[in-house]
Amino acid sequence: MDMTIDYDANRVLIDGWLQVSFENKAVALELASRARKCTTLSPRQRQLLPEIVDHSLSALELLSAGWTRRQALWTGAGARSLYEASVIAAYVVGSETSAERFYQDGLIDIRDIIESLDAQSSLLGEVAEFKALVGVLRTELSELMAVNQIPPKARHLTISEIAEAVGAKPEHKLVYQFLSKFSHSSSVTILTRNGETWLSMVLPLLAMIGLKEYMLMLAKIADGLSPARSGS
Predict the structure, then answer these.
(1) What CA–CA distance (Å, rounded) separates 105 from 64?
(2) Which candidate, 16, 167, 208, 210, has a CA 20 to 30 Å from the CA of 84?
(3) Residue 74 and residue 129 in contact, taking contact as beta carbons nearer than 8 Å
(4) Domain boundaries, the chain
């Protein structure tokens, strides 16, 4: 008995959403341009919001490629990135303090990367050029950490903490674990890779979540640029 779900039933809907999203790429880029020039935003918000839009457009491309090729891994990775971008956009738009904290997170992550590189340098043997590069990076980062008043042992925020800060904790609990299962080499991702029934169920849901979050991300940034909000 053929238990395969009718993939075509969802394909038309999602293909339409993708088409609209790509046709409206100019709208997203215009939104990013407005954010760069918006005087009611802090300098850090003006820096970060266009980068969030650009990141989301790349994630949208990944989701689209995964959907077209019926790859749950690509679709899931794109969808998870779009979900994260939506939550982060709400956080950065929320306040100057939040935007500054998220920027600091990038420096904290770089610190952790440099520490990892330094630890791995011993595996490469006595490679003077590599060790010198790590030393330069460490010096530059130390200066940036000091300028931005980041404690040496500060830890980065998790996406769960950011979701909680913007009041999106219930949704985070609902979708994030699901998206993560299909954006990593998890057992379920590998086992269901060529299962038509599984793909017919999972792919549309991954794509729908990602596309919804992409539209929400743009809406959150647009709301942050609105005159009503600026005047409040």
Answers:
(1) 29
(2) 16
(3) no
(4) 8-101+158-230
CA distance 150 to 124: 31
Distance (Å, whole) CA 204 – CA 15: 10
CA dist 182 and 179 (Å) reads 5
Q: Is 130:124 a contact under the CB 8 Å cutoff?
A: yes
Instruction: Give the whole-angstrom CA distance, residue 221 versus residue 126.
Output: 49
Helix residue ranges, H only, the chain: 8-23, 25-37, 43-69, 72-94, 96-120, 128-147, 159-165, 169-181, 187-191, 196-225, 227-230
Query: Against a cut of 0.90, is the pTM above it?
Result: no
Q: Which sign does the torsion angle of CA 158, 164, 166, 169 carry?
A: positive
In which residue are the tokens 């490469």 written?
A: 124
Contact 192, 198 (CB under 8 A): yes
**pLDDT per residue as tens digits for the range 151-191:** 877 888 899 999 999 999 998 988 998 999 999 888 888 88
| 149: DSSP letter | T
The answer on pLDDT for 107 being more than 90 is no
- The pair of three-digit structure tokens given for residue 230, joined into one six-digit string: 């600026």
